[in-house]
Design brief:
Blueprint: H1 7-22, E1 25-29, E2 50-52, E3 55-59, E4 62-66, E5 69-71, E6 79-81, E7 84-88, E8 91-95, E9 98-100, E10 123-126, E11 129-133, E12 147-148, E13 164-165, H2 176-183, H3 191-206
Parallel strand pairs: 7-13, 11-12
Antiparallel strand pairs: 1-8, 2-5, 3-4, 6-9, 7-8, 10-11
Length: about 210
């Protein structure tokens, strides 16, 4: 079962991480997450959608995969900072993702499709329109018309053995810009993202007999 943070845990984690990382911690577990799954990105369904990568979440029967999907942002000009697992104090901690004007720290995790460990190279806002980088994301230009192609952002990223940030995993620290992005006002997942995650959890429970434990 997921373990919510106790008051004493909150004080310890605040000291370990500082206010930036602590603000997004949702819960902690004592098992490391599996490596990020390799999968084919589905095509973008239309103009205005932004890719949000898949990730492992922890539920009633351990880790389960929440597939990546295309999402309409909650407002113009916003980009998605993926959630990530971090390790400190003997626990693996889930940091929730969020929407903001710039992409913040997501643990240095290589989620692919433009999320190569820092920032996002799969597209950009130009005025009120979001344009997709066809060198990075799967776009059918018969359905999506706001595109460009910039191969200079494609990175030769080696497969990674870990899907968490911290000792024993990816030892990457946030840049100054990522720290500022985390401190700036931002919004949590949209209702579509919440529903998508709930569906993944329901499938996780059903795959293990359909009963919570």
């Amino acid at each position: 079962m997921n373990r919510k943070l106790t008051i004493s845990s909150i004080l310890v984690l605040a000291a370990l991480f500082g206010s930036l990382a602590f603000a997004g911690i949702q819960f902690s577990v004592n098992l490391a997450p599996p490596p990020i799954a390799v999968y084919d990105q589905p095509p973008c369904p239309g103009d205005g959608y932004i890719w949000t990568p898949g990730y492992y979440q922890y539920g009633d029967y351990g880790y389960y995969w929440v597939p990546g999907h295309w999402v309409l942002p909650p407002a113009e000009g916003l980009l998605w900072t993926p959630g990530y697992w971090g390790f400190a104090g003997g626990r693996y901690l889930w940091h929730e993702g969020y929407w903001g004007p710039t992409v913040g720290f997501y643990g240095g995790i290589n989620y692919g499709n433009g999320y190569f460990g820092s920032g996002f190279t799969g597209g950009r806002w130009e005025g009120r329109e979001f344009r997709h980088n066809t060198a990075v994301v799967h776009v059918d230009e018969r359905n999506v018309h706001n595109t460009y192609n910039d191969r200079t952002v494609v990175r030769n990223v080696q497969p990674q053995n870990h899907a968490f940030n911290g000792p024993g995993g990816i030892r990457t620290q946030p840049s100054r810009n990522e720290v500022e992005a985390g401190r700036a006002p931002h919004q949590g997942p949209t209702q579509a993202q919440v529903s998508h995650a709930q569906e993944a959890h329901a499938g996780h429970v059903e795959a293990h007999g359909g009963e919570r434990r």
